[in-house]
């Protein structure tokens, strides 16, 4: 075993759980791993993918390793054992000291006005832009869209948990659209808490419990959303939304909306619906 004192890891997430992780799934810049407790972590070489459970390495290409071992003192990736004490943490918390609620609300309106075309056409953005329903013309698509609209109607009428039950686990992808929507919805409730200074943890707990399903990957993501642990692309977007003019936000918006296939758009749809409907207040 090679004990590596050089920091080949740029940073790790602040919520990494100890344990032995086995390979789960792989993509171009992300390799996912799962342990016996259904905790997830992933390796990436792109700092814009940083998250509460990420390991960001300074490598040209991300390659599959059969297992990862994480302890308080070391991270072992394949045959490489890396000392943890000098590895920086990615901070998944939102810094609220300079948070400007009025800016955030105004800029969110501008996102809807100027960035409609950046939302994936097969995402749940038709809940924000009803004309996008035209992209759901196949039988499965129509059934999915009708179910999402029914869920949305439950939510805006105050039957939040019924809406969550109806949409969870539906849609496409490793993290289905419905689960990404719920995660964004949870993040939106947390932002409402910051904006209006009203504690919402009880509601977030109820929504999380209602949203849990059989997919350990989405369950893990929903846990971070419930606990207001932001991945970098969302944290950067929200921070800039609060602090900057909309013209300075173009890159951050497009970066978030390019997260996954439809995941970023589904998540942002849930976040916007939560804020626009004052959920949790």
What report would you give on this structure?
It is a single chain. The protein has 281 residues and is α/β, with parallel strands linked by helices. Helices cover 41% and strands 16% of the residues. It is built from 9 helices and 10 strands. The chain has helices at residues 101-114, 139-156, 160-167, 177-196, 201-211, 216-226, 232-243, 250-257, 263-276, and strands at residues 2-4, 9-13, 19-26, 30-35, 40-44, 54-57, 67-70, 74-77, 80-83, 89-90. It has a 10-stranded mixed beta sheet, covered by helices on one side. A hairpin with a 3-residue loop joins β3 and β4 (30-35). α3 (160-167) packs parallel to α5 (201-211). It is globular, with a radius of gyration of 19 Å. The model has no long low-confidence stretch (mean pLDDT 92).
Q: Total helix count? A: 9
Number of strands: 10
Query: If you average the pLDDT, what whole number results?
Result: 92
Strand order of the largest sheet: 1-9-8-7-3-4-5-6-2-10
Portion of residues in beta strands equals: 15-25%
Can you give the helix content as a percent range?
40-55%
- Assign an overall shape: globular
What ranges have pLDDT less than 50 throughout 5 or more consecutive residues? none
**Could you give a short account of the major beta sheet?**
10 strands, mixed
Radius of gyration: 19 Å
Q: Give the SSE order as H and E letters.
A: EEEEEEEEEEHHHHHHHHH
The rounded distance between the terminal residues' Cα atoms is: 54 Å
The helix/strand class is alpha/beta
Descriptors:
281 residues; alpha/beta; ten-stranded mixed sheet; 10 strands
């Amino acid at each position: 075993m090679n004990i590596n004192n050089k920091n080949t890891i740029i940073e790790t997430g602040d919520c990494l759980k100890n344990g032995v992780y086995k390979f789960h799934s792989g993509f171009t810049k992300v390799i996912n791993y799962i342990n016996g407790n259904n905790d997830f972590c992933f390796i990436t070489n792109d700092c814009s993918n940083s998250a509460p459970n990420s390991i960001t390495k300074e490598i040209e290409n991300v390659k599959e390793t059969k297992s990862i071992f994480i302890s308080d003192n070391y991270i072992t990736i394949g045959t490489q054992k890396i000392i943890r004490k000098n590895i920086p943490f990615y901070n998944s918390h939102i810094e609220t000291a300079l948070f400007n609620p009025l800016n955030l609300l105004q800029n969110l309106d501008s996102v809807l006005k100027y960035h409609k075309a950046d939302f994936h056409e097969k995402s749940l953005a038709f809940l924000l832009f009803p004309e996008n329903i035209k992209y759901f013309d196949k039988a499965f698509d129509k059934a999915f869209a009708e179910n999402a609209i029914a869920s949305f109607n439950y939510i805006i009428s105050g039957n939040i948990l019924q809406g969550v039950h109806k949409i969870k686990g539906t849609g496409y992808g490793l993290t289905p659209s419905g689960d990404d929507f719920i995660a964004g919805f949870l993040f939106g409730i947390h932002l409402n808490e910051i904006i209006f200074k009203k504690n919402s943890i009880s509601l977030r707990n109820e929504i999380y419990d209602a949203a849990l399903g059989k997919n350990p990957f989405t369950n893990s993501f929903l846990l971070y959303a419930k606990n207001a642990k932001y991945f970098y692309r969302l944290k950067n977007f929200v921070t800039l939304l609060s602090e900057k003019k909309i013209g300075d936000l173009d890159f951050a918006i497009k970066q978030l909306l390019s997260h996954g296939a439809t995941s970023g758009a589904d998540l942002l749809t849930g976040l916007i619906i939560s804020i626009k409907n004052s959920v949790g207040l």
